[in-house]
What we know:
Distance between the termini: 53 Å
Radius of gyration: 18 Å
Oligomer: single chain
Amino acid sequence: MCKGLAALPHTCLERAKEIKTKLGTLIQKHDSAIDFIIPYPEKPEKPPKAQKPSPEEALRWRDSLEKLLQNPYGLASFLTFLRSEFSEENAEFWVACEDYKKTKSPVKRAEKAKKIYEEFIQTEAPKEVNIDHFTKAVTMKNLVEPSPTSFDVAQKRIFALMEKDSLPRFVRSEFYQELIK
């Protein structure tokens, strides 16, 4: 490895790898110029291992992000849609927080807290979520002694952001429209 790369912080190298992967995917899709304009398939991919909801159930999701995220098929569809827009970090953070809350072992909880912080919260994190300074400060303070509620404030902010921004885009998407047919 050259000295220039060795001097970069680990997070910069991770971010560069992530960008390289995304660019590689775009370069491989050379069949038509449309792929560069619309980086997601025309029809949604079917999420694995989850029962497809009835159109009535899927219709309830447009008014309730909570119901969408609680349904395995809904969550998988939502994540697939967000990945197609390269904006999956908020939903992935929410999922990571839900998993974190279920962790009983203090040692594993501390490990997961560190991983979530490094992946989503810290400045220039590979999948940094958009939270305000106050929320970031509260979260960092909570991580001094990780508890199941350490990320609650940040998770609520991200939930509100997804409810206001991501959910309306999802409801207008082809992904969602296929579900309510």
